[in-house]
Design brief:
With 168 residues, the protein is of the alpha+beta class. The protein has one domain: Peptide methionine sulfoxide reductase (Metal Binding Protein, Guanine Nucleotide Exchange Factor, Chain A, Beta Complex), CATH 2.170.150.20. It is built from three helices and nine strands; from the N terminus they run ααβββββββββα. It has a six-stranded antiparallel β-sheet. A hairpin with a 5-residue loop joins strand 6 and strand 7. The longest helix is centred in the N-terminal third of the chain and has 9 residues. The chain is globular and about 40 Å long. The N and C termini lie far apart (45 Å). The structure holds zinc ion. Zinc ion (ZN) binds next to loops.
């Protein structure tokens, strides 16, 4: 189903702010590739619905909207580190909200014209999984609100990350 000719996405487009070409994002360009059956097997039904079907989970009835621990939020699909608790804030929306991603390469964005609105979709740069949307009504210093779905994220506490760091 996801097999397409390899030349389909080869047209060069101007680079977006995220470092990714704006416009189309052919699935074969993402480093992490899995079949639909594999995604269904690996992900919970909620995570599959958000990440692979562009779903939106219910406001407030999700894992991380009021989560305040220090750590990193990773992609539930591929483990890519996406957001830091340092940039999380209470937007009142009922979804986990951040003022910025962890770094410039963690996510990509593209225009989303579904539901008669023009929104900016946010997706994982590694697996292409849908994460949520970004709006320009956030607080200082960025003025951005990255409105994410908890089901697209998995939290790793800072203490656990330090424990695994054996390089020092
Ligand atoms: Zn991912």
């Amino acid at each position: 189903m996801t097999q397409r000719p390899p030349d389909e996405g080869s047209d060069r487009r101007k680079q977006g702010k995220s470092g990714f070409p704006e416009g189309s994002f052919p699935e074969e360009n993402f480093p992490v590739q899995r079949s639909d059956a594999e995604w269904r097997e690996r992900l919970s039904p909620e995570s599959y619905h958000v990440l692979r079907e562009h779903g939106t989970e219910p406001a407030f009835r999700n894992a991380y909207h009021d989560h305040k621990e220090a750590g990193i939020y990773e992609c539930a699909g591929c483990g890519n580190a996406l957001f830091s608790s340092r940039h999380k804030y209470d937007s009142g929306s009922g979804w986990p909200s951040f003022t910025q991603p962890l770094n410039d390469t963690a996510i990509g964005t593209k225009a989303d014209h579904s539901f008669l609105m023009v929104r900016v979709e946010v997706f994982c740069s590694q697996c292409g999984g849908h994460l949520g949307h970004v709006f320009s009504d956030g607080p200082k210093p960025t003025g951005m609100r990255y409105c994410m779905n908890s089901a697209a994220l998995q939290f790793r506490a800072a203490a656990d990350i330090n424990k695994e760091d054996t390089s020092t």
